[in-house]
Amino acid sequence: MSNFEIFSPCDLKILSTTIHKVTNKTILKIVFTPLNEKFQIPLDGVVSVIKPFNYYYEISNKKNNVSVNLTIGEESEQAFGVGFDMKVVVGQPVSVGDRLLTIDKEELANSIKSLNSILEIIVDDDLKIDFAKLKLQKEYLSGEQII
After folding, report:
1. pTM for the full model?
2. What average pLDDT score do residues 90-99 get?
3. b/e for 105-139, b at 16 or more Cβ within 10 A?
């Protein structure tokens, strides 16, 4: 299906998926509940964005015109970074399976709306990936291949 692979960033249960088209790109949005506290890198590439308070990460693979955005929890900026133990920095080359971060579920339960999280897989249209034909499982183990 593709020249790239995406792996589950943690043990997770998928709640919903949607596909969006934007200028020259297709986005597969996966809403999920993390089932463990350790997150790993889902795509070989470079950490290109980390938002303040460490709840949002973007990993880009420019060679394959693919990026992954990972948002941990709903309204997580309200935690002000408490409960997020970041293991990477912007500009850092990363490989699938490297540790991204560890969360403290108990700490976060007191400060955010929900641990429901979002994994967005963004591909250039010239890759001709048809996410609609992708058959996703309901649950994945950390490091298990999604695409």
Report:
1. 0.89
2. 96
3. eeebeeebeebbbbbbbbbeeeeebebeeeeeeee
